[in-house]
Amino acid sequence: MAHIPRDETFDCSLAVLNNGYRFISERCERYGSDLFQTRVMMRPVICATGEDAARMFYHPHRFTRKGSMPPSTLMSLQDRGSVQQLDGQSHRHRKQMFMALMSPDSIKQLGNLFEEEWCRRMQQWQRQESVTLHYEMEELLCRAVCRWTGIKLSEDAAVQRTRELAAMIDGAGAIGPRNWKGLVLRVRTERWARKLIEDTRHAPLSRPRRSPLESIALHRDENGNALPAEVAAVELLNILRPTVAVARFITFAALALHNHPQYREKLRDGDAWRKMFTLEVRRFYPFFPLIAGIVKNPFEWKGHQFGKGDWVMLDMYGTNHDSRLWEQPYEFRPERFQNWEGNAFSLIPQGAGEFDNGHRCPGEWITIELIKRALTMLVSGMEYEVPAQNLSIDLSRLPAIPASRFVITKVRER
Ligand code: HEM
Question: Where would one find coiled-coil regions in this protein (predicted)?
Fold first, then answer.
């Protein structure tokens, strides 16, 4: 059996918390290897980086996500009973429920609602001295995705739900108060989502097409049984929360535009540039650093035997910045995607591989559409200034975000 390097630190939990984005790639560089073993939370783990590692990790049916994440992260993001915690036929069946919501028409409709919310809110921004883009985006996305899903929100509820969903995302990578805040608020959001599911089950159906809320509430599992209301509620939040999370990418997109104003004209010109810029934002900026899994079916990779129950972490941020895949990976260069043929294992901010048989994020198209819509609004829909502020991104904070959350002033509709 091949020898794989071992990081001799007694336990690397602190290193993961403090340097999550570079934790795996720095050590892989140091050991001249795509994989190494260490201990995190006192538990042995194998860490791997790069395209081959993504192929290994996303090979169908090798891994389960059950037991792979610390409870604090699991409860902030997916939660028990969610699609990500399922395997095999049960996973495939539930995943279909999500995939069925992602038709081009349906995604376009969400984009339209987002733009509508943006235009309405811009009236208010014009009267404000300054606007903190990140927080505004979270609320606009929350309002848009609730309307798209078929949920009516009062003004107060929109503010409250945004606060709760945003706290879950912000707390996902933390230990301590930031994480606890997300979890405390989650209890209230789950109660609200469960009531929505129960009410929908007793209400007449929308015509001619079911809303996403109805699709989830009325979904039947592979044996023909309705989902327990609390599981359906978790899946409803699995649509709402990550859509609100797209605000982070939009904030990064605004920052990229500020740092590279030469792209403004190009982005006005056409969809091809907006697509390239969006892909580069998702590649370049830090979101989830890594993804973990537990070996379900033993296999061999690079001469190493992975046994049932082994804990493995795949380096997402490092793979998106791997110099074997990306020339000058730490430069922001949307044109790198000009002749890109697509590769499901090199650009992996939202997972890799297959959608139906694997855990790759079903929300990728929504994410891309919403970032593109935001770029259109930023370059063609309004004028604004970016005052002096702290735009640094602290990579020891998980998930990362520009310190000031991107403040703009003198907003004017174009
Ligand atoms: C901010 C943008 C987003 C990021 C960075 C992101 C990232 C991810 C990642 C890393 C995974 C896990 C992949 C794995 O376990 O291997 C995932 C799964 C998932 N995402 Fe996203 N996501 C985003 C947006 C969305 C959106 C907009 C939706 C839905 C509208 C969504 C719904 C889901 C669901 C349901 C899963 C579980 C899939 C499965 O287990 O098969 N995500 N996402």
Answer: none
| Atom 23 of ligand 1, nearest CA residue | 242
Please return the burial class of 132, using the count of CB atoms within 10 Å of its CB with bins 0-12, 13-18 and 19+.
Answer: middle
CA of 375 to the centre of ligand 1 (A): 22
CA distances from 89 to 79, 92, 239, 292, 349 (A): 19, 5, 21, 21, 25
Decide: 142 and 244 in contact? Cβ < 8 Å.
yes
Report which ligand 1 atom has the smallest distance to the Cα of 94. 41
Indicate which residue's Cα is closest to atom 17 of ligand 1: 361
Q: pLDDT digit string (tens) for 366-383?
A: 999 999 999 999 999 999
What amino acid occupies position 391?
L
Q: What is the pLDDT of residue 179?
A: 76
Quick check: bond before 208 cis, omega within 30? yes
Q: pLDDT tens, 280-305?
A: 999 999 999 999 999 999 999 999 99
Domain ranges of the chain: 13-413
* Cβ–Cβ < 8 Å for 5, 37: yes
Dist. CA 149 → ligand 1 center (Å): 17
Protein residue whose Cα sits closest to atom 4 of ligand 1:
350
Cα separation, 34 vs 55, in Å, equals: 13
Instruction: Tell whether ligand 1 has an atom less than 6 A from the beta carbon of residue 98.
Output: yes
Residue with CA nearest ligand 1 atom 31: 363
62 lines ligand 1 (CB under 6 A): no
d(CA 170, CA 172): 6
Q: Residue 361 annotated as binding?
A: yes
Chain centroid offset of residue 400 CA? 12
Which pair of tokens denotes residue 361?
A: 């994020």
CATH H-level, domain 13-413: superfamily: Cytochrome P450 (1.10.630.10)
- Tens digits of residue pLDDT in 77-112: 767 789 999 999 999 999 999 999 999 999 999 999
